[in-house]
């Protein structure tokens, strides 16, 4: 009875040891880029494959939520017409969503390429492993047949059945185990190889499914991007119609000169310029015009010319002159509508200079420049054609470009104009920010705003 109980307990213990252990998984998918990259690779275990399957479900759900946001932006423009503060907030939200989509699309492109490379490598690895398993399996079977011929099955059974007790039976089995220990190790290794092969085949299937899913998601993301860009164009047009009034409100407030003195020409040196007059203008930026002076193409006051060039395009001094302002507080490519970084508010990184061309003094300003590559400081004298900085996409900007304004100061000397600017920091020179009526053709007296494209080309 005791032997039977012992054998029962032993069997129970063996069964318990063979039962699989269930694990509960909790995944943190907050770092989506890391998970996309991770799940584009071949997973070494079924647990890792399960985690990637969970991420795929999560990512599909997030894409659905993203689509809902895109659709919302496409339908609420009418509500924003009367709510300026909400308009600016929506501009920022839309900018962030476009950046998120761009990041997702880039990551998906990279992931698909990685998956396709991994699938190709898996095909090679699976073929090699199958051949190795077949060779190993044949070798083990041949050796076992050889051993069976020398130690027959009946002999093994007789040895076990003739055991006088459980302890003797276990010793007999242990002895037989030592005899076949080498074969057992070989069989275990073979089983491990077969398990690894199955994992590779599972991964091949998973990666093929993932690649197909990601191709569909990529197509959907690009459609979302197009839809959002269309909505963005409408939103920009709506914003431009109100931008001049926004600028007037932001820029008309009295500024604390001490807070911007590091970027402005010093009063003590403002009257020391001795440069001569230039005979004509040099085009400071070669490139297409995206918006001309007085009005945007879709409506809204625009008091300068926009040159749509890529980030990092050189900006040249249009004439001999004096730098009265140079500041680069903003990220080169951190611009978006409603970003009021810089001074005047929204200018981002900018340079302003006084020049004298054909015996007339002009104030010339360049806005939305790059943070890097600014080669001048307030108080510097420059010659026509000198590089003063690079174009960017900083401040209140919807894309890479440079905004140029020119104000005609008439017969005022550069020294006199520099002193006046140092005491006021008025980039508009009393012309304001909301009306084209201060243009020289309309006003008839200086200071007045010029159309830069008629002077610089």
Automatic annotation (TrEMBL):
GO terms for molecular function: metalloendopeptidase activity. Transmembrane segments: none annotated. Residues 435-445 have a biased composition (Polar residues). Residues 435-457 are annotated as: Disordered. Pfam families: CC_PcsB, Peptidase_M23. InterPro entries: Cell_wall_metabolism_enzyme, Dup_hybrid_motif, M23ase_b-sheet_dom, PcsB_CC. This is Peptidoglycan DD-metalloendopeptidase family protein. It comes from the Bacteria. Residues 448-457 have a biased composition (Basic and acidic residues). Residues 63-139, 173-263 form a coiled coil. Residues 1-26 form the signal peptide. Residues 126-199 form the Peptidoglycan hydrolase PcsB coiled-coil domain. The keyword Iron-sulfur does not apply. Keywords: Coiled coil, Signal. Gene3D superfamilies: 6.10.250.3150, Glucose Permease (Domain IIA).
């Amino acid at each position: 009875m005791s032997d039977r109980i012992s054998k029962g307990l032993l069997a129970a213990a063996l069964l318990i040891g063979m039962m699989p252990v269930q694990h509960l998984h909790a995944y943190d998918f907050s770092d989506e880029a890391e998970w996309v990259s991770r799940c584009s690779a071949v997973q070494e275990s079924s647990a890792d494959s399960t985690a990637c399957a969970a991420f795929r479900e999560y990512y599909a759900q997030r894409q659905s939520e993203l689509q809902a946001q895109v659709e919302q932006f496409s339908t609420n423009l009418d509500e924003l017409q009367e709510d300026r503060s909400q308009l600016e907030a929506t501009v920022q939200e839309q900018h962030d969503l476009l950046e998120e989509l761009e990041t997702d699309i880039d990551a998906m492109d990279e992931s698909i390429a990685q998956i396709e490379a991994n699938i190709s490598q898996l095909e090679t690895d699976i073929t090699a492993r199958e051949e190795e398993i077949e060779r190993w399996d044949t070798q083990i079977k041949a050796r076992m047949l050889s051993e069976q011929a020398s130690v027959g099955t009946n002999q093994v059974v007789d040895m076990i059945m003739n055991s006088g007790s459980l302890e003797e039976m276990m010793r007999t089995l242990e002895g037989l185990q030592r005899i076949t220990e080498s074969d057992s190790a070989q069989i275990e290794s073979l089983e491990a190889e077969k398990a690894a092969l199955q994992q590779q085949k599972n991964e091949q299937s998973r990666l093929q499914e993932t690649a197909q899913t990601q191709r569909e998601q990529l197509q959907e993301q690009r459609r979302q991007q197009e839809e959002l860009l269309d909505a963005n164009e409408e939103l920009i047009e709506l914003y431009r119609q109100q931008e001049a009034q926004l600028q007037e409100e932001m820029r008309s407030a009295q500024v604390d000169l001490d807070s911007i003195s590091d970027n402005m020409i010093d009063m003590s040196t403002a009257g020391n310029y001795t440069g001569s007059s230039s005979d004509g203008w040099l085009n400071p930026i070669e490139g297409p015009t995206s918006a001309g002076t007085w009005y945007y193409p879709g409506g809204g006051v625009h008091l300068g010319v926009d040159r749509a060039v890529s980030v990092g395009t050189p900006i040249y001094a249009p004439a001999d002159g004096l730098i009265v302002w140079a500041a680069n507080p903003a990220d080169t490519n951190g611009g978006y509508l409603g970003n009021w970084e810089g001074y005047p508010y929204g200018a981002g990184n900018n340079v302003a200079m006084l020049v004298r061309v054909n015996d007339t003094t002009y104030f010339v300003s360049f806005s939305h420049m790059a943070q890097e590559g600014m080669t001048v400081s307030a108080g510097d004298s420059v010659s026509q054609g000198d590089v003063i900085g690079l174009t960017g996409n900083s401040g209140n900007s919807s894309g890479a470009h440079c905004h140029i304004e020119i104000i005609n100061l008439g017969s005022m000397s550069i020294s006199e104009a520099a002193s006046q600017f140092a005491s006021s920091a008025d980039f508009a020179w009393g012309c304001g920010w909301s009306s084209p009526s201060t243009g020289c053709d309309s006003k008839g007296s200086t200071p007045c705003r010029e159309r830069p494209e008629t002077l610089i080309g």
